[in-house]
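Q: I have 798 residues here and want to know how they pack in 3D. Can you give me a structure?
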Amino acid sequence: MPLPTLPASPVADPAAVVAGDRYRITVLTEGLLRLEYAEDGVFEDRASTFALHRALPVPDFRVVDQGTHLEVVTRRLRLTYDKGPFSTSGLSVAVLGAVTSWHSVWRYGGPDDGRNLGGTARTLDEADGALPLEPGVAGRHGFAVVDDSTSLLLTEDGWVAPRDGSRTDLYVFAYGHDHAEAVRALYAVSGPQPVLPRWALGNWWSRYHPYTADEYRELLDRFQAAGLPFSVAVLDMDWHVTDVDPAIGSGWTGYTWDRTLFPDPAAFLADVHARGLRVTLNVHPADGVGPHEEAYESMCHALGLDPAAREPIAFDVADEAFLSAYLDVLHRRLEADGVDFWWIDWQQGAHSRVAGVDPLWMLNHFHFLDAARDGHRPLTFSRYAGPGSHRYPVGFSGDTVVSWASLEFQPYFTATAANIGYGWWSHDVGGHMFGAKDDELATRWVQLGVFSPVLRLHSSNNPFMTKEPWAFAPEHEAVQTRYLRLRHRLVPYLHTMNHRAAREGVPLVTPMYHRWSRHAEAYDVPGQFAFGSQLVVAPITRPRDRASATGAVRAWLPEGTWVDVLDGLVYDGGREIVLHRDLAGVPVLAPAGALVPLDAADVPPDDPVEPAALEVLVVVGADGAFTLVEDDGTGDGLDDARVARTPLVWDQAAGVLTVGPADGSTGFLPAARTWTAAFVSVADEVAPAVTVEAAPVEPAVARTADGHLRVTVADVPVGAVVRIGLGSGPALRLNEVARRLHRILDAAQVGYELKSRVLAVLTSDRPLHVRLSHLGALPVPPSLREALEEVVLARVAG
C-alpha cells in the first residue's frame, strides 16, 4: 500500500537565504536561524523529522558583509560569522534586547553551562524522582539550539532516508525571554500539535492485568454505579496470547486475541463502545510475527514468504514492505473489529538495522499517519522520540516508581516539555511499580492527573496494586471520586485549549515563565504551571504534615487578585507564598476576569460529548473574555466549517456576563442549552437579572457551600444571547477568616486548649501585627502556624 505523508514545505524562500560555497544561513523567523556547513557545498532541502516547513514568510533582516566577516541582523539577533568552518571564535549569535548583561551570546561549540531550560525525556521508565531532560528551545540566557545534523529525512514518496552526519545542520533560537514565541517558532518549522479527539480528554482506565471480557464489563458496571466516568479503556498486553513457545518469542509481542479471556472480541469492543468508551490495545512489536499468530499466513503472503516454513517474521521497521504489511495486515484487521487506536509500547532502544533509523520514531510517525486515513482524527499512544514528536500525541511517559519523589517530579516534567512543544503527556497516575501502598500519595496523584494533559490511571500486574478509588480508605475514595468527576466536567475548557494548542501554538500545560518570563520568581516554582489560558495550578506533591493536617506547596502569585476556584479563598498577588490544603484541596487559582466553562453535570457521562448544560466559572473584579470552541469530531478539527464558537464576555463595570450567540457550524450542538453562571466568591450585595434575546427571564439562584453564587437559565436556543447581570462593579467577598481558621484548627493534631487560645488570638480585634506577633509567641507547630498565617494574610481587605 502507498505510505501516507505529512504536509511539508521544506525549501526556504531564496530571499531568506545567505549562502557561500560551503555555508548556508537561512533566516526562518526574526528569532530563528538555520545554520548549515558542508565541505562539498551540497545542502539539504528535504524535510527532516524535526523540520517540515522552511518556506516561511521572510522576516525583515539585513546583511553586512565586512569581507572577512558576515553579519546577519534581525530585530531579535545579530549573527557574526567568519565564513569558514564553524568554530567557537568564528560563529556566534548575540541575542538583542538586553536579556542579560553578558551571557546572551551563543557560540558554536561553546560550553553548555545550564542556560537551557530543558525539554523532555524519552521515558520515565523506572524513574524514582528526577532524571535529566533533553534540551528545549527556551533558554534562561535567551538562546537555545536544536542540532538536526543526524535526524532522519523524509522523502517525497513517504519513506525516510538517514543522514551520514557529515554536514552540520543547526537551528538557533534567539528569542531572549520570549519563551512562548520560541515555542511558536518551533511549531512554525516543525508543524503544529494536532487537535485531539474530544474523548481523549476524559479519564482513561488502564491496568496491567489479565482481564476477562466479563470481568471488564463488571468493572465498567461498578464504575458507572459509583459515578466514576471513563472515556477510554486501555487494555494492556494480556488482551493477546502471551503463552508462547520461547523458541518463537517472549510473549510480549502479540496480535491474536486470547480467546480464553475474550471469546468474542468484536462483541466485547461493541459493548465497550455502547457504554461511551473508546478502546486502545497495547502492542510490543519487537518480536515480529510468529507462526502462531492468526495473521501469520497473511503477513507471509504480503511479504512474499512461504508460510509453510513456519519461520518467525522478524520486526524490521527499516523495511518499507514490512512496515506496510505491519500496518495493513496486523493492525487494520483488528481495527475493523473496533480497536480505536494503539498503545505502542516500544522499549528496545533507538536503533535498527539501518543506522539513524529510530524504530520508536518510525512507529509513532507511521501509526499516526495511518490512523488519519479515511478522514479519521488520528491518535497514537507512545513514548517521546525526539524533537518533532509533538506531532504524534498522546505521549506515554513510561513505568515510574510509586513514590513521592516520582510525583513531585511530574509537574515540572510535564510543564517543561512545553519547551520542546510536547504538550500531551500521559503519565501512569499513581505510579506503575515498586513502592508501597500510600493512600495519600495515590490521592494527590489523581489530583495532579486532573490538571495534566491526559489523565490515565494505571498500575502493574501486582495483585495488590490497583487504582480503583474503592481500593483506598473512604476519605481517599471520596476525594478521588470528586476529582475524577471534575476531570470530565473540565472537558469543555480542555477541548477549547486543545484547539488553542493546535491553532495558536500554546500547549495546555506551560511553565510559569512562559507567561511571566521577565519575573525571576516564575523560574523558581518548578512544580507550578499554567493550565490553559485561565488557570494556574500548584499541585500538592508532598505528604500532609501531621500537626496541621495539610499539605503545602511553595508558589508564586503574579500581580493582581487571585481566587482559588475550588476553595474560594481570595489572595492578593505579587508575592511568593506557601499554600496549604487539606486532602480534598489543591490550589487551582484564577485571576480576576477569568472565565472557565464546565460541564454542569454533577456526574458527567463516560463519553464527554457536547453537554446540554454548561456552567461558567466567573471571577469578578476585571473584564474577561473566553470563546468556547467545539467541533463535530470529524476530520482533523481545523476545518472551520465543522467548528462552533460561543463567546463568553464579562463586563466588570456593567456587571454583566454575555453568553453567545454560538457561531459557525452549530448543527451538532444541542438545540437548546441550560447555562449557569457560577460567580466565584462574589460578594453578597448583588441582585441577579437575566435576559434571553433581550427579554427578561426568571433565573434560578443559589448560594452554594463552596461560596459560588449560581445563576441558572434553562432552555436557551443555541443561537440566542444570554445576559446575566449582577449590577455595576460587583466585588469579591471578604474572606471568611474566622470560619477558615476554625476549620484548620479543628483538623489540627494539637492540644485542644492551644486551639482555643490560637483562635481567640487570631479573631480578636487587635491590629494585625499584634495578632501575628502573639501567634508567633505561642507553642504552635511551624506548619500549623504557616497555614493559619496564610488565611489571615491572604488578602489585605479580608
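Q: Anything worth noting?
A: DSSP finds 15 helices and 41 strands in the chain. Residues 46 and 796 are 60 Å apart (CA to CA).
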